[in-house]
């Protein structure tokens, strides 16, 4: 059973536009929500992450918006660039450092930013 | 460079053959994980090890075994490979955040 649902499956955005990817989760015990970026032939790399005590986190052009009551979170990429073309995964886990709690991933969104 | 190292990077197996995928991390992390990635499926957890000496099943453990050899190393074994195990396998470790290896691309024919 998929614990994290991600949409859309693919996304095409023009250079300079805003890319938006959405995720929803079921398990209210989740308290760590990261986004990963993956380029072909590479492993996922952490892009940005949020905990449910805040509703928004911004790092450069990347912003996570978090809605605890709706159990939804989203990634916004402002001023999208061709170099942002990659697959993006949302994930969720029960947090705590050095715990065994694993990440539960969405199915991924393939983003293409056109020149 | 600190990180997670996986070997081999590529492997082709015949149905029924066995092999072990190796993973090592040098960040002194307690928790380690094995995921498989299939097109359109995201990453699915196979097994994890919360600490040295412990292992637990994840979402898709059938057909796999693991060994947490020491704090650094966590191996994944396929005893009798099947075409359904054709996938890209990622090892990860967790400290403050999760760090992934570069993956092993396995094809079973």
Helices and strands in order, then pairings?
The complex is a heterodimer of chains A (115) and B (109).
Chain A: E1 4-7, E2 10-14, E3 19-25, E4 33-38, E5 45-50, E6 56-59, E7 62-67, E8 72-77, E9 86-92, E10 104-105, E11 109-114
Parallel strand pairs in A: 2-11
Antiparallel strand pairs in A: 1-3, 3-8, 4-5, 4-9, 6-7, 7-8, 9-10, 9-11
Chain B: E1 4-7, E2 10-13, E3 19-25, E4 31-38, E5 42-49, E6 56-57, E7 64-68, E8 74-78, E9 87-94, E10 98-100, E11 104-108
Parallel strand pairs in B: 2-11
Antiparallel strand pairs in B: 1-3, 3-8, 4-5, 4-9, 5-6, 7-8, 9-10, 9-11
What is Rg of chain A? Answer: 14 Å
Whole-number radius of gyration of chain B?
Answer: 13 Å
* Interface with most residues: A-B, 22 and 30 residues
Describe the sheet with the most strands of chain A: 6 strands, mixed
Helix content of chain B: under 10%
Number of strands of chain B: 11
The arrangement of helices and strands of chain B along the chain is EEEEEEEEEEE
Give the structure's gist in a few sentences.
Chain A has 115 residues and is mostly beta strands. Helices cover 0% and strands 51% of the residues of chain A. In chain A, the strands form 2 sheets. In chain A, strands 2, 4, 5, 9, 10 and 11 form a 6-stranded mixed β-sheet that branches.
